[in-house]
Design brief:
The structure holds two protein chains of two kinds.
Chain A (H helix, E strand, L loop, with lengths): L1 E5 L5 H25 L4 H9 L1 H4 L3 H27 L7 H19 L7 H27 L3 H21 L35 H19 L1 H11 L1 H6 L4 H25 L13 H11 L4 H25 L3 H18 L1 H4 E5 L6
Antiparallel strand pairs in A: 1-2
Helix pairs in contact in A: 1-2, 1-14, 2-13, 4-8, 4-9, 4-11, 4-12, 4-13, 5-6, 5-7, 5-11, 5-12, 6-7, 6-11, 8-9, 8-11, 8-13, 12-13, 12-14, 13-14
Chain B lengths: L7 H27 L7 H19 L2 H25 L4 H19 L25 H5 L4 H19 L1 H11 L1 H6 L4 H27 L11 H11 L4 H23 L6 H19 L19
The chains are: A mainly alpha, B mainly alpha.
Chain lengths: 360, 306
């Protein structure tokens, strides 16, 4: 007879070991999945996790790590603040789209003027777009007690439709021969989020992600607001007594995560993606949820988790072209990771006891 | 623009069909939530059901078998959620999200070979002379069998929850799991069964989209219907008949929006397409003031020792 016994306090060892265990289990079951798809499991795993870092063309893939990792980290940092306090912003994908639209909109409005002020203005507009979109669920929750999970999610579908209408209408490239999609911002110097150091993958989005990580770390470790976030998550009633204003906290957490998601969208659309198009968003907003949990909602953990997740994207692309592994397999792989993580988390708070249950 | 092209009788008949996927999924989720579990994985279970049902219907040539497969697929996927939340006591919100992300991935993986394939058609129920009655016949007696199954399920769930001992136990587990446990009811087992029931209905709802509403397979084709179903349970204050009302309201909006698109209304298509989501938010706001109807233990983990 196996039973669970609640630990007096969460195990620190398991808090760190859980992500590693989850990654190992995902390797194993991912391998089984690849074998079921008729691919050599060992070769598939190596292709995904070894080739981008140390393979023949790693000089090409390594910068990609920063390019794909930065938006994930940026979004996940914001989400983690809310998740810690029990405020569930699930609509980062929508905030990402709105940030990109606001930012790109400002850039396109100035075309073809050249000025050093255009890009900073776009950054502000992008942050504002994401923030404003997140304020909808936040204000509704504070004012009416509406469920923020459902509202923020519904807004993703609204944002997607809005994106489609923008890339077919207002923002459509007038010189684009009627194809949907905006002008390419990569070809517009003042609005281009170019690499800061050539061939390093280092663009302004990466810088912003680093700043966000430091900001979050300091906030959680040192600042009163960070204390409010932690207390609200662990003991909501105690938080109320210690003077935390729940409404203000909701506005802060959703606003910050929306702002960071909006920034991620702006840096993506003005850099790697280049243009507003119907499907320029690739689900970073949802993958960032996995990143946040895998990183244990801790800033440093999120950086590591973001890089790992970026690796699965890059390695997945390689596996797709070299081994013919379907792109969806990587999505399943990522989903599995979150499953195992949640399951193994049991050992952080409980311990297994073997033997008979004594009669109560 | 030609609004007279919209035939109100056909509109009502079509809205019943548009409402059925939401109705099935929301009825399942209602049972899950009445048992005290918040499963946010409805979207993932629906899309998995959509591809399971589609694939099996295409392979066997039988839509009925497809629907059974969809129910099984949804239930099996929901077992993962049950395992996470009931056995390993993981956070229900996070587990539900994991289920959706995983379901979206697995469905597009399974669906690789089925893009562009036509599924076998499910014939409408033959009501004989009833369907020849003007107006009423067209509205009520011209549908596929699953639509009626959906209606029967609502009635069944209502009756079971209200009049039977099993329903009482289920509600007790949802209201106060500690008290139910003290009375000797198997909280985890009852909840697991409820979760599987919800998964099966969500799967069938998904298959209704891929086999009857759209008759084809495209990745992510449930496009948020699962989330609307979740919102609907709140809208319905956890009452089965209100789920029916809500589903028809949303089915009506979806259908009207499509009709307006067809009639060439001057509003851009994208703005019409976002209307069901916007209206869902508006309805959520209007109803969010009253949370008194929510089951007491909703969303809380249960562990016998704590």
């Amino acid at each position: 007879m196996i039973r669970l016994e609640k630990r007096p306090r969460p195990s620190r060892t398991f808090a760190w070991a859980t992500p590693l265990l989850a990654v190992l289990a995902t390797f194993f079951f991912g391998g089984v999945l690849f074998a079921l798809l008729g691919k050599d499991p060992v070769q598939s795993i190596l292709t995904i996790f070894w080739q981008p870092l140390f393979g023949e063309f790693s000089f090409f893939y390594r910068p990609q790590l920063l390019i794909k990792g930065a938006p994930l980290v940026l979004i996940a940092i914001g989400l983690s603040l809310g998740f810690r306090a029990g405020i569930w912003n699930i609509g980062a994908e929508g905030q990402y789209i709105m940030g990109a639209l606001f930012g790109a909109g400002v850039g396109l409005a100035f075309y073809p003027a050249e000025s050093v002020f255009i890009f900073p203005l776009m950054v502000i507009a992008g942050a504002f777009g994401g923030w404003a979109w997140a304020m909808i669920p936040a204000v509704l929750k504070v004012r009416f007690g509406t469920n923020e999970i459902l509202v923020s999610l519904m807004l993703v579908y609204v944002a997607e439709q809005f994106l489609a209408s923008m890339s077919l209408g207002l923002m459509k490239n007038p010189e684009g021969f009627g194809f949907p999609g905006s002008r390419n911002l990569q070809q517009y110097d003042s609005a281009h989020n170019a690499e800061i150091i050539t061939n390093s993958g280092m663009h302004w989005g990466v810088v912003a992600a680093m700043i966000a990580v430091i900001f979050a770390y300091v906030l959680l470790a040192r600042h009163r607001l960070g204390f409010a976030v932690r207390v609200t998550g662990e003991a909501p009633r105690a938080a109320r007594f210690s003077g935390v204003n729940p409404g203000r906290l909701i506005l802060f957490c959703l606003g910050t995560s929306g702002m960071l998601a909006g920034l991620a969208g702006l840096f993506e659309v003005s850099g790697p993606a280049g243009q507003v198009s119907i499907d320029f968003n690739v689900g970073y907003g949802f993958t960032a949820i996995i990143v946040a949990f895998l990183g244990r909602l801790h800033p440093v953990g999120i950086v590591l988790a973001g890089l790992l997740m970026a690796l699965t994207y890059i390695g997945g692309d390689i596996a797709q072209s070299q081994l013919g592994l379907p792109a969806a397999a990587i999505q399943v792989f990522q989903g599995m990771l979150l499953f195992f993580l949640l399951a193994f988390d049991l050992f952080t708070n409980y311990r297994l006891r073997f033997g008979r249950t004594e009669a109560a | 623009m030609d609004l007279s092209a919209i035939n109100p009788i056909l509109l009502i008949a079509a809205l019943m069909s548009a409402a059925t996927p939401i109705l099935l999924a929301a009825t399942g989720e209602l049972v899950v939530e009445r048992a005290g579990v918040l499963n946010l994985g409805v979207e993932g279970m629906m899309i998995t059901g959509a591809i399971c049902g589609f694939a099996i219907a295409v392979e066997t040539g039988s839509p009925t078998t497809g629907f059974i497969a969809a129910a099984v697929g949804g239930a099996v996927l929901s077992l993962l959620f049950a395992l996470l939340t009931q056995v390993t006591l993981a956070n229900q919100v996070a587990s539900g999200l994991a289920l959706t992300l995983f379901g979206l991935g697995i469905s597009s993986l399974l669906g690789q070979g089925y893009v562009g394939v036509k599924p076998p058609r499910m014939p409408d129920v033959n009501f004989g002379p009833l369907s020849d009655i003007p107006v009423i016949g067209q509205i009520f007696f011209s549908h596929d069998p699953l639509l009626y199954v959906g209606l029967l399920l609502v009635a069944g769930v209502w009756a079971v929850l209200r009049f039977t001992r099993a329903g009482l136990v289920l509600r007790a587990v949802g209201e106060n799991h500690d008290a139910a446990h003290a009375l000797g009811y198997k909280v985890v087992r009852i909840r697991t069964l409820a979760i599987m029931f919800g998964g099966a209905l969500a799967g069938m709802g998904g298959a209704y989209i891929s086999l009857i509403r759209v008759p084809q397979w495209t990745e992510g084709m449930t496009a948020g219907v699962g989330w609307i179903a979740l919102a609907l349970v709140v809208f319905a204050s956890w009452k089965p008949w209100r789920v029916l009302l809500g589903a028809y309201l949303f089915g009506g909006i979806t259908q009207l929006q499509l009709n307006l698109q067809g009639a060439g209304v001057a509003i851009p298509v994208e703005y019409l397409a976002m209307s069901p989501y916007v209206i869902t938010i508006v309805v959520l706001v209007m109803l969010s003031a009253d949370k008194s109807a929510a089951p007491g233990s909703l969303g809380r983990s249960f562990h016998a020792s704590s």
